Amino acid sequence: MSDVTLNTIQDQANQVESAFAEQKSALAANPSAKGVEELRVAFLGRKGQVTSIMEQMRNISKDDRPEAGKIINKTRSKIESAIEELKAEAEEFLIQQKLDQAPIDISLPVQSSGAKGSLHPVTLMRRVLLKEFRKLGFTVYDGPEVDLDLYNFSSLNFKDDHPARDMQDTFFVKDFDKTVLRTHTSNIQIHALMNQQPPLRVVSPGRTYRCDSDLTHTPMFHQIECLVVDQNISMGDMKGVIDTFLKAIFGDDLETRLRPSYFPFVEPGGEVDLQCVSCRGKGCRICSQTGWLEIGGLGMIHPNVFEAVGVDSERYTGFAFGFGIDRIAMLRYGLQDLRQLFEGNQQFLGQFPIQP
Ligand code: DAH
């Protein structure tokens, strides 16, 4: 025999809800995590009020059971979400109480730690590099780090299905069509040439991004791009610029060498190696016994790039190169692990000077 009806269940649910509402408002005056927990146990715990309505399910007729279940579940989820809200309120109340008790005196002088501060090695290296480029008559050109595929790839002669695109493990920007975190500073070649007619002599340092992380790669790294466009510019001019600034940084007695390589935006393209700073060409662990260290990519601007930006490739020639600033810093300062640069360890960073 079923002695409990749907009406009874509904009445009890209503009673529980109003009892809960009453206790909830009592708690609101002085919310605490302990009070909320007690409330939860009193209503949702094993011997709680909601649980005791549930226990009556077995005395209700089979036909009415699904409906009774719905009524009880509705009450339970109302109480559950109210408890969650109360928990958050109690936490906030506690924080506010602490803030009120111990107001922060912003006029209190800070105790000096005695630390003098220093420049980050990448900043240091960037400043040293720019100083050398300024001496050679370059101006600094700034370009965007979040850029369109148009500037980062397609105008630089990366065809849609070009295998060279695979060389770049690119971060694409979600929900923005054809937008990337630039994979190299070469995007400024396009920005600079679209904004400025040749003759042009610019250098552009900045952050670049690729999905890469190990001893010698970090997902964010720094490059410096150099671009010269004028009449009668030759590879000899390029070698002259590269030699001059590498010697200024690493000293006069280290050799550099150019070696052919492929990049879609230059023809001919190449890479520059510096005689190993550690063994001076004899061969050691740092240079993998080759005597040489790879510094960056270079080449003469490809006619397709000139065409993409509307510069007459019959009249003008130019060169560009792009080097890793972090890598140069690593070699110049003898660092073992590139990731050290981005870990924010003060002991490591404090070794560098305040001025370049
Ligand atoms: N952007 C190339 C890279 O990140 C490096 C590079 C190669 C830059 C050749 C250049 C260049 O300007 O001419 O791998």
From TrEMBL:
Gene Ontology terms, MF aspect: ATP binding; magnesium ion binding; phenylalanine-tRNA ligase activity; tRNA binding
Q: Where in the cell is it found?
A: Cytoplasm
Q: Which domain of life is it from?
A: Bacteria
Cofactor note, please?
Answer: Binds 2 magnesium ions per tetramer.
Instruction: List ligand-binding residues for Mg(2+).
Output: E267
List each copy of the Aminoacyl-transfer RNA synthetases class-II family profile domain by range. 125-353
Q: Which Gene3D superfamilies match?
A: Bira Bifunctional Protein, Domain 2 (3.30.930.10)
Q: Which UniProt keywords apply?
A: Aminoacyl-tRNA synthetase, ATP-binding, Cytoplasm, Ligase, Magnesium, Metal-binding, Nucleotide-binding, Protein biosynthesis
Regions annotated as coiled coil = none
Q: What is its main location?
A: cytoplasm
Name of one Pfam family that matches = Phe_tRNA-synt_N
Annotated catalysed reactions: tRNA(Phe) + L-phenylalanine + ATP = L-phenylalanyl-tRNA(Phe) + AMP + diphosphate + H(+)
Q: What class of enzyme is it?
A: ligase
Cite the EC number. 6.1.1.20
Q: Which GO terms describe its cellular component?
A: cytoplasm
Q: Which CDD domains match?
A: PheRS_alpha_core (cd00496)
**Record-level GO BP terms:** phenylalanyl-tRNA aminoacylation
Task: Tell me the SUPFAM superfamilies matching this sequence.
Answer: Class II aaRS and biotin synthetases (SSF55681), tRNA-binding arm (SSF46589)
Which InterPro entries does the UniProt entry name for this protein? aa-tRNA-synth_II, aa-tRNA-synth_II/BPL/LPL, Phe-tRNA-synth_IIc_asu, Phe-tRNA_ligase_II_N, Phe_tRNA_ligase_alpha1_bac, Phenylalanyl-tRNA_Synthase, tRNA-bd_arm
Q: Which cofactor does it need?
A: Mg(2+)
Please state which protein family the record places this protein in: Belongs to the class-II aminoacyl-tRNA synthetase family. Phe-tRNA synthetase alpha subunit type 1 subfamily.
What interactions and quaternary structure are annotated?
Tetramer of two alpha and two beta subunits.
List the PANTHER family hit by this protein, alphabetically.
Answer: PHENYLALANINE--TRNA LIGASE, MITOCHONDRIAL, PHENYLALANYL-TRNA SYNTHETASE
UniProt name for this protein: Phenylalanine--tRNA ligase alpha subunit
- Source organism phylogeny: Bacteria, Pseudomonadati, Bdellovibrionota, Oligoflexia, Oligoflexales
Q: Gene for this protein?
A: pheS
